[in-house]
Amino acid sequence: MVGIYLHIPFCKQACSYCDFHFSTNLNTKDALVKAIIKEIENRYNYLNNNKLGSIYFGGGTPSLLNKQEFEAIFEAINKHFTCDKAAEITMETNPDDISKENLKIWKQLGINRLSIGLQSFNDEELKWMNRAHNASQSVTSVLMAQDEGFDNITIDLIYGSKFQDLKTWESTLLQTVSLNTQHISSYNLTIENKTVLGIQNAKGKEPSINDDLSSKQFLMMSDMLQQNNFIHYEISNFGKPGFFAKHNSNYWLQKHYLGVGPSAHSFDGTSRQWNVRNNNLYIQALENSTSYFEKEELSVKDRFNEYVLTRFRTIWGCDVNEIRSLFGEEIEKHFLKMVTEKKNDLEENNRSYILTTQARLYADGIAADFFID
Q: Running DSSP on this structure, what letter comes out for residue 179?
């Protein structure tokens, strides 16, 4: 099934490391919600009347929307799309937005999966990240959501910061497991140029990432979480059986999705398009019925390159029969030639090739070696 991603580009404050599109100015929130609704109305044909298997509210911080704003968006979605009864409806939220009142509202709206941005259990590290919550809230937010009946919760963690070593990371993982959530997403800290962290790093005021430590943290995480009933099904994602993220799996398995909101991306199998990364320009374009996105038609080679890039990140890997069916015999031959060259990095399972755990440390580089120019 297909999915819809809705980008809600508002945050209370800017995290020091974040390079996603967002604004801390909430004055345009009402106008932006109206623009999102109009985009939904304009693009209802994009998914060819296929049932929605997932709806994902990302950001930004979608939990900054109020009940009425959510209701208006859901009304537009339900008017123009058919939603599967078992659809996964995810909302990203931060611990400081979680309250019993909000949880009840979200549940009434039909949201059945929460993605909670904990990032850390260390107060000093959270302050350095410029997060709005503290370490205590990292724990209590999850417990509160569970008490209110949310039984599909994923939490976000970040590793690789200057505050961590292997001992503190092990402690973080043990605390994470004790929360008994169904899913964990964990990302290596990256230093992006235009962020506060990137600017400070360029001035020599913040250290660069210790890649050796990050690699050891990744391997420790993979081992510990798999020992605790999590399946390491994508490089940065761990799910208990039956709780893999449906929406994100659409991305990795080349299924179609519609992206709504400023900076959101869409994919229909043969082309990719992305919306303008500016709230005011997005709103004005929808109000004036002018263009607000760019579009790229994907060649067979483009689609193959994206296939290997995303599939090598997963436990499903690259399927030879699927490659032949999707891209033809010549590309299949190219792929098998590269498999021979990269045999030490790969494991084979019923004509599907997946990366070894060690090779996952270099997944993007290995995938790039398979690319066709």
A: T
Residues above pLDDT 90, as percent of the chain: 99
What topology is assigned to 303-373 in CATH?
A: Arc Repressor Mutant, subunit A (1.10.10)
CA distance 158 to 241: 23
Residues 6+ apart with CB under 8 A from 195: 16, 17, 18, 19
Dihedrals phi, psi of 231, to nearest 5 degrees: -100, 130
What one-character DSSP code corresponds to residue 233? E
Report the C-alpha gap between 264 and 6 in whole angstroms: 7
Cβ-based neighbours of 213, under 8 Å, separated by 6 or more: 160, 164, 165, 166
pLDDT value for 328: 97
| Span 95-114, average pLDDT | 98
Picking from 180, 186, 3, 162, the residue whose alpha carbon sits closest to that of residue 81 is: 3
Per-residue pLDDT tens digits for 207-256: 999 999 999 999 999 999 999 999 999 999 999 999 999 999 999 999 99
In whole angstroms, give the CA distance from residue 147 to residue 245.
Answer: 22
pTM: 0.96
What is the length of the chain? Answer: 373
267 falls in which pLDDT band (50, 70, 90)?
very high
| Secondary structure (3-state) at 205 | coil
> CA–CA separation, 118 vs 142, rounded Å?
9
Say what the pLDDT of residue 282 is: 98
pLDDT of residue 185: 98
Give the pairing of strands 231-234 and 237-239: antiparallel
Q: Which CATH superfamily is domain 2-251 in?
A: Aldolase class I (3.20.20.70)
184: closest CA among 127, 251, 237? Answer: 237
Q: What angle do CA 158, 163, 169 make, to 5 degrees?
A: 55
- Per-domain residue ranges for the chain? 2-251, 303-373
Closest CA to 218 of 76, 359, 13, 338: 359
Phi/psi for 161 (5° steps) reads -80, 170
